[in-house]
């Protein structure tokens, strides 16, 4: 299952980089190309949502089927493995949340940038008309 987490991590990183590039001031020359690339990637990146739901269900299933380990009923190595498993689940849940938030941010920022470009074009047309 490690490959799924690597893919999700790379997707979240790509989303974060695209959001960063779209919001950095001073890249006006590259912004049109970035917006075009981002708009074309939004639909394929939408597959992250069901993928994250699947991975979240996997975390839940592992949590429900994990044997309980109290300090008295298990050896120190079993207790350490139990704590490590809990920390991995929490890390993976954080990765899921970040991937979903970055997708939402990317969608929102892209739509705002497109709307700003449309409004700027309307202003230019109104200036040229007068």
From TrEMBL:
InterPro entries noted in UniProt: BAP29/BAP31
Organism per entry: Rhamnella rubrinervis
Keywords for the protein's UniProt record, in alphabetical order: Endoplasmic reticulum, ER-Golgi transport, Membrane, Protein transport, Transmembrane, Transmembrane helix, Transport
Protein location: Endoplasmic reticulum membrane
GO annotation, cellular component aspect: endoplasmic reticulum membrane
Chief place of localization: endoplasmic reticulum
Entry's family note: Belongs to the BCAP29/BCAP31 family.
Gene Ontology biological process terms, A to Z: endoplasmic reticulum to Golgi vesicle-mediated transport; intracellular protein transport; protein localization to endoplasmic reticulum exit site
UniProt entry tagged with the keyword Protein transport: yes
Record membrane topology: Multi-pass membrane protein
Protein name as catalogued: Endoplasmic reticulum transmembrane protein
Known role: May play a role in anterograde transport of membrane proteins from the endoplasmic reticulum to the Golgi.
Transmembrane portions of the chain: 6-24, 45-63, 93-116
